[in-house]
Task: inverse folding
């Protein structure tokens, strides 16, 4: 409005100046100030609320909080536990197993025991025969018995025997060699083969490697344990091979050379010992005997087995007598008369 008033005033002034000549040069600015000015400054927003929109304007700004407090509050604090025990509590502890059998499944063949991890199928008759006999009804045997046996129906391979009547091959296809047998040092019954021996209380049946060695199935040779030897590990070994100063002989022979008999016991040809050469003694013929003779004083000499005629000590490493005082000679069989 202010600007409108200024524009009207300037137009009226221009009309007045056009009716009479001017003696002064015109200026760009008016010669007087407006007599009044607007009392209010314009505002960007409306000065009143709209009334024709069909709604009322809020009189106050909304707040997040309620304008009044609740008129009542709880008198007691809540508790975590109930103030009274339940009336329908169980009287018995629950069990892992149900107390009744299911009746709604319509199955009368309910299981009578707990399930196991074992399979429930049953092998057919043919499978049982195969597992037991390891044979096909057609008569074809495993690996054609490796050429070391005869294929028999429902028996599988029957391996060949040797001249001694013992089987020379073993295994389902007769591909494994057997080892020589002899009386066992210690019996081990692990199958039905030795049933007769068990009934007869035979603690030393004929077994491979005499149970004192391991059979090499590829060669049929016994690998004997320490202290045993022979093709069937059937005898002990002589200590240090008698130091090459004697012969290793079984007890039966040693007894005969000593003028006695040892032939009935089961080990008469299994335990062995050294039969030393002349001039040596000891379990391994490791001792060298010293010369000996009759005692020069008439006491016990060589007739009782005393070394050095009973008048000296024998050095078994060298075989030389170490004579006592007043005795001399290779066998200490002479006495000196010098005091």
Result:
């Amino acid at each position: 409005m202010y600007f409108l008033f200024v524009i009207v005033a300037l137009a009226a002034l221009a009309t007045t100046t056009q009716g009479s000549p001017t003696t002064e040069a015109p200026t760009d600015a008016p010669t007087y100030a407006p007599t009044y000015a607007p009392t209010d400054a314009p505002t960007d927003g409306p000065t009143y609320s709209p009334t024709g929109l069909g709604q009322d304007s809020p009189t106050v700004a909304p707040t997040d909080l309620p304008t009044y407090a609740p008129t009542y509050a709880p008198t007691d604090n809540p508790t975590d536990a109930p103030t009274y025990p339940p009336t329908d509590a169980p009287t018995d502890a629950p069990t892992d197993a149900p107390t009744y059998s299911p009746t709604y499944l319509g199955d009368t063949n309910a299981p009578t025991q707990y399930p196991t991890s074992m399979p429930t199928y049953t092998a057919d008759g043919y499978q049982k025969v195969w597992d037991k006999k390891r044979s096909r009804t057609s008569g074809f045997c495993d690996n054609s018995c490796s050429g070391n046996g005869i294929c028999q129906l429902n028996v599988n391979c029957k391996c060949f025997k040797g001249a001694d009547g013992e089987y020379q091959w073993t295994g389902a296809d007769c591909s494994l060699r057997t080892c020589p047998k002899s009386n066992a040092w210690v019996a081990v019954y692990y199958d039905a083969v030795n049933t007769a021996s068990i009934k007869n209380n035979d603690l030393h049946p004929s077994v491979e490697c005499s149970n004192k060695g391991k059979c090499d199935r590829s060669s049929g040779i016994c690998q004997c344990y320490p202290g045993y030897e022979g093709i069937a590990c059937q005898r002990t070994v002589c200590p240090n091979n008698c130091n090459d100063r004697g012969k290793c002989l079984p007890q039966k022979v040693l007894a005969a050379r000593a003028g006695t008999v040892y032939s009935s016991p089961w080990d008469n040809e299994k335990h062995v010992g050294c039969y030393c050469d002349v001039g040596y003694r000891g379990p391994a013929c490791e001792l060298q005997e010293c010369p000996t003779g009759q005692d020069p004083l008439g006491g016990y000499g060589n007739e009782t087995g005393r070394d050095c005629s009973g008048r000296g000590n024998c050095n078994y490493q060298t075989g030389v007598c170490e004579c006592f005082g007043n005795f001399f000679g290779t066998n200490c069989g002479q006495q000196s008369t010098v005091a």
